[in-house]
Each structure stands twice: as structure tokens, then as C-alpha cells.
Design goal:
With 366 residues, the protein is an alpha/beta fold. The protein is built from 14 helices and 13 strands. 36% of the residues are buried. About 3% of the residues have low confidence. Helix 1 crosses helix 10 and helix 4 runs antiparallel to helix 5. The structure holds guanosine-5'-diphosphate.
Length: 366
């Protein structure tokens, strides 16, 4: 399951975001507990198509696609040098697919700021610096090891050294690695190092209740002023977690009304999840049998065997073919039976690139 880690300085709204995400995930018919550990929550991806597929395929129940959110507390300046819970904190970030970085834009004299004033760009840079320093440490250690081999003439080590030098240069220039594109071969070396600043970032701008728009706008302008290309690999999502906290106390019906009064069309969880989908380039496919219809999140461009592997490794290992039909066509025909009779179910091989909304049945043999 896809994992997103929530990071940021203390008191910026990380727990508030975590609570807003997991509270809004309820009611979860198929997933009784949204918060699986105090700091780990499973959030369902809102998508009405999964219910429709369940109805038409006659499954008893449905399971929406899910994303795991981890509230990673404990970042302080010097984390990369092991200050505070530094090492533990960085190890947790290593595990995630994407980072949701909360920055504080709201002014509130009752909520202390660890750095004494509200300055989202400075905060952002403070956290990025810790991640980059940690990466620099990783790269330097690998350079020492690989350097010895390279000097003794090992061809692979010489190639790896070139990549490490490139990483070292970028990091010392203060450039987060997610903005750099690597060749396929370089990607292998980079992937193996599992560096923190290569991960895509959702920037969650926590704006105040009253001035949401101005503050978010000011932050966007400040980001823009950091220079061209500075936002590569990041998406800014303005939210007001103060409002979310109030929303969480309301009944679902009242929530919708309150949102309407504020001129917002959806809750923060839906917005954050949708942004995460966009940032990570995810699409959804469905599997359906008598028991269960399930929605699965996969990266766009995934081929049929890869999609099969998301359900079960055996499906991928023994992949023969996939029976496929698009969501729109399935809804139009109204049932699998009719779809079959009309010959609308396609038989796709291992090179088939899965499309968003596909309903897939895998044939495999292990
Ligand atoms: P964390 O330390 O980053 O997890 O921050 P918390 O989520 O615990 O929030 C710290 C404090 O800021 C809490 O008292 C929150 O109620 C408050 N807070 C969070 N978001 C907002 C906001 O948008 N507006 C205001 N006024 N207070 C907020």
C-alpha cells in the first residue's frame, strides 16, 4: 500500500492534518479502524466508481483504494546529526513513497512557533536542509567505499562514482534531488541509496481561518520567487486545519453544510488525497468477484503483470493474461454477463498498459 509521511516543524499542524485525514475516512465499512497505530492511519480514496462496480458485478462488499499516512513527529534542527529523535525520524521518512510537508502560514499568538515567528519559506528550507544533510551523509559514506574500488580499476565502481559525484554536487549546491532527472542506469544507483530528498513532496500550506487566500497566495509567490524550477516535484495544497478540527466534531450532514457556508466544496482529506494521486501519477483499477469489489491504486503506465502483482505476487509471477473492460463501457452494458455476451471483454497480454477505471480479471498459473 502506498505510504505518505507527514513531516514538518513542531506546532505547524501535523497532528491536526493526521486527525483530519483519519477522521474523515470514517465510516469505514470494510476497514474497522482507520487509525491502526497512534501515528499510522489508513485513508480510503474517495471514488464513487467502486460502489457502482460493486452493484453491477453483484459483489457482497467493496473496498476502496487505500493510502497509509504516517505522522512522523520529532523533526528539530540538527535531526540529520541525530539531535532529538533525529535518526528515528529520518529512518521513518526512508520508508515512505511521498512526503506531505506541513508548513505553518497561520498567525496565532496562542500557538508558539519554535523559531519565534511565522515564516513558511524559512521553515520549509529548515526541513529541506535536514533532509539534504542526511542525504549528503549517505552519499559521502558511499563515495568512500566506492572510491576505493574505483581507484583499483573496477569498472562498475567507476560508473557508480560518476553518479555519486553528481549527487554530491547537487546536494552541496542546495538542490533537492527530486528536481534532478536521472538516466535509467543512474536511477538504479540512486534507488539503491534510498535518499530522502528524491521523494515527491506535497506542500501542505496550513493557512489561517480568516485569511486563507492571502496567506496561501503569499506563500505561493514566495515559492515562485525562490527561482525557476524550485517547485519541481512538489505541489502546494492550501488547507486550514483550524477549520478542519471544527469540522471533525460535526455530523457528516452538518459538515457538508458548514463547508458550503465557507465556500469550500470538499474536505481537506479529499483534497490531500487527490493531490497525492496527481503528484504520484496514480490511477485506479478494479477487481471484482462475488465476494468483493476492490479498487487498487497503481502508478500510471503500469503494465498488466505489474497491476496483478499489486493484488498478489502469485498473480504477477504466473501471469498469463488479463480480461479487461473500461469503466464507462461496463456501466453502459450493465453487467459482466452482458459484457461477455457482447464480446466486450478484451483479452490483454503482458504488454498491456492499464488504464484508469479498468475492471481487470487476471488469469494466472503458478
Ligand atoms: P504538530 O505539532 O505539527 O503536530 O501541530 P498540531 O497539529 O498539534 O497543532 C499545534 C497547535 O496549532 C494546536 O493547538 C492546533 O490546534 C493549532 N492549529 C493547527 N492548525 C491551526 C490553524 O489552521 N489555525 C490555528 N489558529 N491554529 C491551528
Amino acid at each position: 500500500m502506498l505510504q505518505v509521511g507527514i513531516v514538518g516543524l513542531p506546532n505547524v499542524g501535523k497532528s491536526s492534518l493526521f486527525n483530519a485525514l483519519t477522521a474523515a475516512g470514517a465510516p469505514a465499512e470494510n476497514y474497522p479502524f482507520c487509525t491502526v497505530e497512534p501515528n499510522v492511519g489508513i485513508v480510503q480514496v474517495p471514488d464513487p466508481r467502486v460502489q457502482r462496480v460493486r452493484e453491477l458485478s453483484g459483489s457482497q462488499e467493496y473496498v476502496p483504494a487505500q493510502i497509509r499516512f504516517v505522522d512522523i513527529a520529532g523533526l528539530v534542527m540538527g535531526a540529520s546529526k541525530g539531535e532529538g529523535l533525529g535518526n528515528q525520524f529520518l529512518a521513518q521518512i526512508r520508508e515512505v513513497d511521498a512526503i506531505a510537508h506541513v508548513v505553518r502560514c497561520f498567525q496565532d499568538p496562542d500557538v508558539t512557533h519554535v523559531m519565534g515567528s511565522v515564516d513558511p519559506v524559512r521553515d520549509l528550507e529548515t526541513v529541506e536542509l535536514e533532509l539534504a544533510l542526511s542525504d549528503l551523509d549517505t552519499v559521502e559514506r558511499r563515495r568512500e567505499k566506492t572510491g576505493k574500488k574505483a581507484r583499483s580499476g573496477e569498472v562498475d565502481a567507476i560508473r557508480e562514482m560518476a553518479v555519486l559525484d553528481r549527487l554530491f554536487q547537487a546536494l552541496t549546491d542546495g538542490e533537492p534531488l527530486r528536481r534532478i532527472s536521472f538516466s535509467h542506469k543512474e536511477e538504479v544507483v540512486v534507488g539503491d541509496l534510498n535518499l530522502l530528498s528524491t521523494k515527491p513532496v506535497l506542500l501542505i500550506a496550513n493557512v489561517g481561518e480568516d485569511q486563507s487566500h492571502q496567506e496561501a497566495e503569499a506563500f505561493r509567490v514566495a515559492m515562485h520567487n525562490r527561482g525557476p524550477g524550485q517547485s519541481g516535484g512538489t505541489v502546494v495544497v492550501p488547507v486550514s486545519l483550524g477549520i478542519e478540527a471544527e469540522l471533525a466534531l460535526l455530523e457528516p450532514g452538518e459538515r457538508q453544510e458548514f463547508l458550503g457556508e465557507l465556500g469550500l466544496d470538499e474536505e481537506v482529506s479529499a483534497r490531500v488525497i487527490r493531490s497525492a494521486y496527481g503528484l504520484l501519477g496514480l490511477i485506479t483499477f478494479f477487481s471484482a468477484n462475488d465476494k468483493q469489489t476492490t479498487a487498487w491504486a497503481i502508478p500510471e503506465g503500469t503494465k498488466a503483470p505489474g497491476a496483478a502483482g499489486v493484488i498478489h505476487t502469485d498473480f504477477q509471477r504466473g501471469f498469463i493474461r488479463a480480461e479487461a473492460i473500461g469503466y464507462e463501457e461496463f456501466v453502459e452494458l450493465g453487467s459482466m454477463k452482458v459484457a461477455r455476451e457482447k464480446g466486450a471483454i478484451r483479452s490483454e497480454g503482458k504488454d498491456y498498459v492499464v488504464r484508469d477505471g479498468d475492471i481487470l480479471l487476471f488469469r494466472f498459473n503458478v
